[in-house]
Design brief:
By secondary structure, the protein is an alpha/beta fold. The chain has eight helices and eleven strands. A seven-stranded mixed β-sheet has the order 3-2-1-4-5-11-10, with helices on both faces. A four-stranded antiparallel β-sheet has the order 6-7-8-9. α3 packs across α4.
Length: 247
Amino acid sequence: MQNKQDKFNWFEDWFNSPYYHLLYKDRNHIEAEHFICNILSYLAPEKSSKMLDVACGKGRHSLFISKQGYTTDGFDLSENSIIDAKKHENQHLKFHVNDIRIPLKTNYYHFAFNLFTSFGYFINEEDNQKAIDAISASLVKDGVLVIDFMNVNYTLGNLTLSEVKQIEGITFNIKKEIEHDFIVKHIEFNDKNQHYHYTERVKILHLNDFINYLTQANLKIETTFGDYSLNPFDENTSERLIIIAKK
């Protein structure tokens, strides 16, 4: 029987599924470390700075940030992701199950990171704003938020509508489409005589949308970058939209 997925809370089931982690198991850790090194070099935090990784998944960014000598908390809604992340916990690195719309701690962190397009999942705009408000509330005065989101103009211009991935004996059939203001990815596969269909939905958000969210949350953009090497942002050619905002 095909599984049913609530489009409003699709991330709860999909991110907690072992198939999500299987499909994305080969994400580029070298690229992630390259970005963290570059962004920390740019931000130049004090060693006493407290760091927050928002929607951290299994904690690959959190782990590397903490290895640079910073006390780091990571949180994610997926219990399975946090169970895996907790294997890497130590005195200066902790992981928590938490909803992005709720501050993990208030007025506590000097830097917050929301990386790898871990935003824009909600159908209701109020929830997106609540998420930014919650991150802002977690920051101290003059605290900094780093958002790493897709550059939607580039993404839409280079959208792969259909692909097939073979991973550990499972054939993932992936199709993408634009549905209202969302990029929707349909993921179908069979395993152990069971048919599965999961859906990812990410809102099409431009820089101006983030300016509105951030302004309402008492955050001001200081600069933007267009890739993990921190080249300038170009709305048409940059692969990423990386925002540095200050409280």
